[in-house]
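We modelled the chain as a single entity of 200 amino acids. Its sequence is:
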Amino acid sequence: MDRKRAVRQLKALMQRAGWDERLAASGWSEEWQCLIATLLSARTRDDVTIPVAQALFERFPTVTALAEAPLEEIEAAIGQINFFRTKAKNVKACAKALVEQFESCVPHTLEALLTLPGVGRKTANVFLTETGADAIGVDTHVARISRKLDWTAETDPHKIERDLERLFPKRYWGWINDTLVRIGRNNRGRKEDALLSEIR
């Protein structure tokens, strides 16, 4: 794939992405809230995740309070999202690790983020993007659309991430997840195929 063509395609998608919609990682006043909300959003729609995360943060307003919260109370607070029991354990353990290992602050390197319970590459990269770093979070939307546009032929998220890093200049990395998630959510099936065909 030609780099100029890929950038042109991304810019065309950015114009149609629906930027009035909030994603789970955005709009939080504290970095730990951004990280926890992103963790909660895995395999759960953002319109479900956001109010659940908001209620969780109102109940436990500091990362220390969340780290010390009884597990059953976290489970009750996030019970509407998918895999809530596993996520509750990860939320509590992640908050505890932030308090004990990082002085209640979220680290800003991929390597450190990946040491936190429940935080994989996608969650870490989305957080880094939200805090101004050049990173690409690869979720199902990014993987699917990237393959359809021939930006990658890979299916492994880490390999897709590497392909996209090679294809796009760094200044575009932070736009990829935000753009493709919005496109993927709002254009399903044949509608998505028609849109992608049009921008090719």
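As a brief sanity check on the tokenised model: The chain has two domains: 3-19+136-199, 31-130. The chain has a mean pLDDT of 96.
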